[in-house]
Every structure is written in C-alpha cells, then in structure tokens.
Amino acid sequence: MVKLRHLLWQFLLCSTLVSSALAQSTLTEIRDTVYTPGGSPFNGTVVITWNGYSGPNGSVQSPLSMSANIYNGALSVLLVPTTTASSGAFYQVVYNSSAASLTWSEVWQVPPSAIPLTVASVRTSTTQGSGSGSGSGSGGGSGSGGSGSGQYATLPISIAQVTGLASDLTSINTSIGSFSTQLATLSSAVQALQSAPGGSSSVSVAAAFIDGQVPAGTLDGNNNTFTLSQTPVPLASLSLYRNGLVQTAGLDYTASGATLTFLPGAIPQPGDALLAYYRVAGPAQTVNFADSEVPGSSVNGVNTSFALAHTPNTPASLKLYKNGVLLQSPGDYTLAGSNITMTSAPQAGDTLIADYRY
Prior knowledge:
Elements: H1 4-21, E1 28-35, E2 44-51, E3 64-70, E4 74-79, E5 90-97, E6 103-108, H2 119-122, E7 123-128, E8 134-135, H3 169-178, H4 180-195, E9 199-213, E10 225-227, E11 239-242, E12 245-246, E13 253-256, E14 259-262, E15 274-293, E16 305-307, E17 319-322, E18 325-326, E19 333-336, E20 339-342, E21 352-357
C-alpha cells in the first residue's frame, strides 16, 4: 500500500522539482475505475515504473518505480508526461489483485493534459498474465470513478535531474503555490481513505496459503540467492517483502521455481528482514478475504489497542501496514483473536491498514 502519510510530502516535492527540472508546469492525472474480467471492481495494487530517464551526460538511469493500492476499482495517480520527455520514455504498469488471483501488465504513454485521462486513453499495449482487467473510461480524457477515494502519487525524480535547483528558491516557491489546489484535493482523498471501511470477498480456490515465510539464504550483503520451501503456484501469487517494503519482480528480484535471485542494488544486507507470502496447490476450499480494512480505534499517539472486524484465519495471514510499511509480529504488534496490541502507539496522522483471511 502506498505510504499515505508521506505521500503528501512526496507529491509536493516531486511536483515542484518536476516543474523546475523538466520545465513541465503540470503533471497528468490518470483517473479511472479498473474492473476484473468478471466485471467486478478491481482490488489490489498497481506498480508503475518509469523507463527512459537519461542522465546529464546521456547515460541510462535505472528505472524508477512506485506502487499504489486500488480499492473498489478506484485508480487516481499523477504522473510526469512521457510524450514530452526523452525519446523512448514510457511507463510499465503491473496490476496484482489482493487475492493474488489476477495479474496483468500494460504499457502507458502519458501526454500533458490539464484534465484527467482514462486508462484507455494512455494504454498502448496489454500483456495478459493470470487475468486481465479494464478501465471504465472511454476516451476523451474525462475518466470515470475514483473521485474522492483514489490515491494520488508521483513517480520519484532522480537526483541528476534536480542538480542546480538549490539556488532557484524563488522559482520553487512559485511552483509550490501553483499546486495548492491539487494538495487540497489530495488531502480530501487521504481523509476519505482513512475513514473508509475495508472490503471483503469470498473466493473458492484449490490452494493452500504460505504466510510470512522467511526465505532460506545468507544475509551478508553479497549473497543474492534465496530459497522458498515450496514453489509458488502461480508464481504471480508471490508477495515478497524486505524490511516491510514490497519488492517488485523484475526490478528487485527474479523468481524461478522456489529460487529467488535479487538484482544488483536490491541485494539484502545484514540485519534485513525478508518475508514471503504465496500460494501452492491444495484442496478446494472457500476462503474469506478482508482487504484494506482500517482497524477500529483511535490513532492519537497514546492508544495501542485496535480491533479487526473478524478473527484472522490463520493469524499469520494478517498483513498489517503502518503508513504503507508491513509490520512484523511479534516485534511491532501482537494479535489475540481479532485484537491488535501495538508495541508503540501510532501517532496522529498515521494510517493502519489490514489484509487477512478469516
């Protein structure tokens, strides 16, 4: 899930730097409602990766990536246009459902636009994985759905692109003022997400679930190969976390069978925590999922007790996020039935989100 608390600052900083560094006065909003092949609103995550940055000496820069949650199909992100950037720039977009039953990828070309655009108006190709979905918009850039409940985000900007901006404070302050209206909209969206109840679904699957497994391997900063106890089925069902941050297949690591290979720049260091969640073949069963649930109670810097709507089955199936970072139990919290006790009280403005089976 996106780190909602930090998103406001990321949005403000990145938007300002983009306007100065790339001479683009506005970002383009992609707003739409995403549906599954069955016609129901999509619930899950979307990972958006910028490909095409060039450094000041013409060198190729590493791809930059961000992820956001989609709840009830609502998608709303702010992106740097690609059609006016360096030649060959594009966005690689990967969808993964909360139940790990659907995954597909798309390529986006984003033009400058003063009005929101739909997914259909920027999508140039789709690669089908274990399923494929669609946006509800139909051209014209008008978009549909997602208003007031989507999550805004901007792709991080590389340091090379903001060199020399330290002396241009006047220009930066002017740019900050131009985004005040968009920040107000973002604040409303975040508040709506914080107060919105989570969704639930019941799915029949022939699978068993592996929750919170620590991949086998040496954490020494050099070893890049780790092993799961079983092979994920399908491979797209694998969710891999490093220090609470979800890792992106193809960018942070590759998976072949039960073997995980981390890529340069993403190799785990001593003291890092790796956790894997995935499915394997198993007997047919009906599983209830709770997605993006906000645990009940006050987030005020003092309270440490929170309640879920249901009792997780099993307790290890609970994925509890604080500001988008996966927490660990024990350590960050303990679970007794449907009651969560935090080790440290979340501060006012923090966001708690829970995904689990029951």
